[in-house]
TrEMBL record:
This is Outer membrane protein beta-barrel domain-containing protein. Keywords: Signal. Residues 1-20 form the signal peptide. The keyword Signal applies.
Length: 219
């Protein structure tokens, strides 16, 4: 049971993504789309359950619409699956689904503030009840153009039970298309999972670290 709970909770963090790339366009009606995944993801559980598990597969996506007056609306999503392993006499895996809705306000050409809402749902075959973590988060994102092709970018977003930060580099591969690579960490605190048939759950803190690769393009 310890490994089952740890593996499932670890998937919460497979949603680590390139949160802010230099390609988001704040022009009214401009639409930017992103698609990618995370490589070599690992997580650590801290608390009564201490274990680790690797991610197997997954994808992430985002759509940002410019609203004008230095404001943009963004939706982000991700779906991830863990490696299979033996637990409770079964071959099992976990699934994580992450959703975010954010407003970005550009304070300067290089810095934007972010406010939004996120929800992550974790399911694990039929052995653990679906766990849900949701709430508001706030933070700042920024980018620094190095030359006509390369830019650096970073983000720090925090909520009551969540924390996300990343730093990376963006490479312009087309007129309105970018390839973004970053190192990122995502944390969730006081995650409550309850095994099927158990009257009590287990609260844990978890962190995921990984390399995020995302292609971003303006439509």
């Amino acid at each position: 049971m310890k490994r089952i709970l740890a593996a499932t909770l670890g998937l919460v963090f497979a949603g680590t993504v390139a949160f802010a790339s230099p390609s988001v366009d704040y022009t009214p009606g401009a639409v930017t789309v992103e698609l990618g995944s995370t490589l070599n993801s690992t997580f650590n559980g801290k608390g009564a359950i201490n274990d680790s598990v690797d991610g197997k597969s997954g994808f992430k996506y985002a759509v940002a619409a410019g609203l004008g007056d230095n404001l943009a609306l963004q939706y982000k999503g991700g779906h991830f699956v863990s490696e299979e392993f033996s637990g409770m006499g079964h071959t099992v895996h976990g699934i994580s689904d992450l959703h975010e809705i954010n407003f970005l306000y550009r304070v300067t050409p290089e810095i934007s503030v972010v406010t939004g809402w996120l929800q992550n749902k974790v399911s694990y075959n039929t052995f653990v009840n679906e766990a849900k973590v949701s709430g508001m988060h706030f933070g700042v994102v920024g980018s620094k153009k190095l030359d006509d092709k390369y830019s650096l970018f970073a983000a720090y977003i925090a909520g009551k039970e969540s924390l996300f930060w990343e730093a990376g580099i963006s490479y312009k591969i087309g007129q309105d298309t970018y390839f973004n690579v970053s190192y990122a960490e995502r944390e969730f605190r006081d995650v409550d999972l309850r095994p099927i048939g158990s009257p009590v759950g287990a609260q844990e803190d978890y962190k995921l670290k990984g390399i995020s690769c995302v292609v971003s393009s303006k439509l």
